[in-house]
Each structure stands twice: as structure tokens, then as C-alpha cells.
Amino acid sequence: MPRYIDIIAPESEEQLELMVSRAISLGFGAVGIVGDFPDLPNGTFRVSIVGPSSIPQEARKIRSKVRLLLSSPKTLEESRKVTFSKLVDGVVASYDTGRPNFDYVSAKLLKRNEGTLLVPVAWMIRKMLEEPHVIRNVRLEVRIALKAGLYPVIASMARDVREIVPPRLLVSFGEFILDLRRDQAKSMVKDFPSYLISEERKLRTKGVALDEVQGSH
Amino acid sequence: MKFRVPIELKERRRYICVYAPVSKSDLNKALKRRLRELSGIKGSGIYRFTLLPLGNANFLVRTTEASLAALLTALLINRYKDIPSLEVRGISGTLRKAKELCAVPPTVKRRS
Q1: Is A172 in contact with B76 (Cβ distance < 8 A)?
Q2: Strand pairing class (B49-55; B13-19)
Q3: Do B73 and A162 touch (CB under 8 A)?
Q4: Selected residue of B14, B17, B41, B110 to mutate for chain A interface (largest A Cβ count, 10 A)
Q5: In whole angstroms, how far apart are CA A197 and each of A9, A32, A42?
Q6: Burial of B50 by CB count in 10 Å (0-12 exposed, 13-18 middle, 19+ buried)?
Q7: What confidence tens digit (pLDDT) does each residue in B99-110 have?
Q8: For residues A62 and A78, what is the distance between their CA atoms, to the nearest angstrom?
Q9: Hey, is B93 helix, strand or coil?
């Protein structure tokens, strides 16, 4: 059954425990953790964000250790390179660059791996009040991702307890800022992230990433 | 003469229970300023709300279904930027249920 899922990026181990308990108390069923922490609490999974230059060498090393492997391309060329590799599960929406870095071709490449486009709410809010065109770029990328059949995800990417918000606020953010219908926005907080970490997706993409890892030897 | 019901009265009312340890005027100003910014970013939009103080730093924000997403986004941004201790504790379509949501102490966990 789908559960609300959030992805956070804590700054320290003390923050990690507090943030996970707060997220679970707010109604999240599972929490993705970005960062190199040795032990993770129950109800969490590992997420890693690698730079485009670390693909494929670095990505091959950590692929088996993380549940979701994301990348943050800064240009369209990097986006094509990143999505061409089947090791990557998704890309981060371009919240900090002046133009969209994710096109339909990249989306179709990512679709082979049943991938995702991550909308980082906290990072976006920090940026969008100074540069409102960020919203237009992310909105466009989400539209492309939905058209290509990807599974976009809205996550808080909180770095401390203060930035963890209830799932309903993430849904409203998607509904209002990204011009989505409420059911679409809700899917991006609940159904799509649940599918991304599900066994069903693992079975469907079985062998896709493995081929690339074995090909390196 | 036929009486016509204004369109905003036909809309379903929504009540948001908010915990914010600031005065009513400060919260009102913060929300209005954030909604003005959001209206500017989105291009246009009229978002209506009324603040009802309930005591113990709890407020009810009365709004319409059409303004709900904008209000929640404004509250989210205010939590990130201006009022870090602001919390949205629940949303309801009836005043009685919204007051019940606000009556629960904020430390009670909804899920273990």
C-alpha cells in the first residue's frame, strides 16, 4: 500500500534522529536519507546524489549500497550523459540554474530505467523568492517528465527539523506552484515515491543496472 | 427583486488550524505579504482569508476552497522564512472539527 515518503538531507547524526522521528510523527511512512551516515534508523532508506562527473565510475561503486541514486546535472549535455547511464534512478530538477536542464530526450532515456525527477522543496523555496524564473523552469521540467511517463517526486530535502513539514503542505506546494491538479500532486508525494522504492520496480528494472555494472569488469 | 448569492459565499469554506507563537497582527501581516509575493510570481490571483485567534498561540485561518492551496503554500514559506515555529495542525471543512483539531496539545504524536 502506498505511503507518504519524504527525502531529507540532515547535517548531522543528532539531527538525523530528530528529523526521522518528526517526519514519522507527521505521517510519513518512510524517509529517504541523503548523506553518508553509518547507521540509519528504522523506516529509512539511503539516497545518494552524485555529480555528473562521477558517472559511471563512482556510481558503479555505490549503486548496490543505496536505494535511490540521483544526479544533479547543470547543463543539458550533462543531463543527456546522466540519463543515458542506466545506473541512475533520477535527476534533481534545475532549481539553481538559469534555464531548464532536462528535455524530452533525457526524459525518454530515463524512462527506460523507470526513473524520477526530484523536486526539492526546501532548496527551491530558498532560491525562488530571489529568482522567480526557477518556478517556470521546474514547472516545465515536471510537465515534460509527466508527458514522458516518468514518476516525478516532491520531497522536502530538509536539512533540519524546522524544514520538515506535513505531507499536505508538500501537496499544496505542488498544486499551487507547479500548477498541478491535487490528485497529481498527491501522487508525487505518495504513490510515485512508493513505487520507486518498491519491489515491483526492482523486478521490472531487474538486470538493467546490473548489465552496466557487469560490463565494467 | 431576485436575491443573488455572491459567488464567494457559494464556495465551500475551509478552516486551517495553525499554531504560531506570534500576535494576530504579525501573522496577518506575514501571510498577506507572502500572498502578495505569490500573486506576483503566479501572475494574478485574489486570495481571501480571515484569522480567528483561539488562544494558546492557536489560530484558525478561514478561507475558501479556491484559496486553500495558496494559503497553505504561504504558510509553508512563512515556516521556512519568517516564523520557524509555525505549524499547520489540520484542515477541516467545518468550524467545530477545526476547533477540535486546535484543542489537541501540539506535542501529541499522530502516529508512533
Answers
A1: yes
A2: unpaired
A3: no
A4: B41
A5: 18, 10, 15
A6: exposed
A7: 998 888 765 455
A8: 20
A9: coil
Chain B hits for A138, CB-CB cut-off 8 Å, are: none
Q: Which residues of B touch A177 (CB under 8 A)?
A: 73
Reduced to 3 states (helix: H, G, I; strand: E, B; else coil), residue A87 is: coil
Does A210 touch chain B if contact means CB atoms closer than 8 Å? no
CB pairs under 8 A between A and B: 55
User: Is A161's Cβ below 8 Å from some Cβ in B?
Assistant: no
> Domain range for residue A20?
5-215
Chain B closest-CA separation from residue A129 CA (Å): 8
Q: What is the CATH code for B11-103?
A: 3.30.70.3250
* ipTM surpassing 0.90: no
Instruction: Please provide residue A146's backbone torsions phi and psi, each rounded to the nearest 5 degrees.
Output: -65, -35
Task: Tally Cβ neighbours within 10 Å of residue A13.
Answer: 12
Helix intervals (H) in A55-207: 57-62, 76-84, 104-111, 121-128, 133-147, 167-177, 182-189, 191-196, 199-204
Tell me, rounded to whole angstroms, the distance of Cα B4 from its chain centroid.
28
Q: Is A128 on the interface with B (CB under 8 A)?
A: yes
**CA–CA distances in Å: residue A157 to residues A6, A136, A163:** 8, 20, 8
Number of H helices, E strands in chain B: 4, 4
Instruction: Say yes or no: A176 contacts chain B, CB-CB below 8 A.
Output: yes
Query: What is the tens place of the pLDDT at every residue in B50-84?
Result: 999 998 889 999 998 888 999 999 999 999 988 88
Stated pTM of the model: 0.88
How many domains are contained in chain A? 1
In chain B, what are the domain boundaries?
Answer: 11-103
CB burial string A163-182: b at 16+ within 10 A, e below: bbbbbbbbbbbbbbbbebee
Cell digits for A205? Answer: 528494472
Type of residue numbered B44 = S
**Residue A134 maps to which CATH number?**
3.20.20.140
